[in-house]
Design goal:
Helix content: 40-55%
Strand content: 5-15%
Number of helices: 4
Strand order of the largest sheet: 1-3-2
Largest sheet: 3 strands, antiparallel
Shape: globular
Structural class: alpha+beta
Number of strands: 3
Order of helices and strands: HHHHEEE
Amino acid sequence: KIVAKRRVRLAEENCLARAIYFEARSESELGQLAVAKVILNRTRDPNYPKTICGVVYQGANRSNSCQFSFACDGSPDEPRSREAWNSAKRVANKALAGDQSVRVMSAATHYHADYVKPRWARSMKRLIKIGRHIFYSDT
């Protein structure tokens, strides 16, 4: 039972680190933590899957219909930069440990890069811009 729980925990850490790596590796640690916080917030929202991997890969079986673009863009989800991957894993662990660096993110469930204008953003409350990402709450 303990081994099974550890396996699940490691898989969840890996999914969170992959999302951080592919969605925010060029961002500051604060920006990476903010992306992680959106994912963790979604696991507590009844409109999303209850697990980190479920949130990260939601809709991945449909081309370009997923929540996080890397999950369904057709490219392999294998990190290429060892340094950025190690950083993403470190940030994922920090986020899972409850890091409070991004308190403003407690309600954030969405974000997008500042060079796109998704339709959904108009109906949400803008919280903050960190690096190239703009974060929103649906409440």
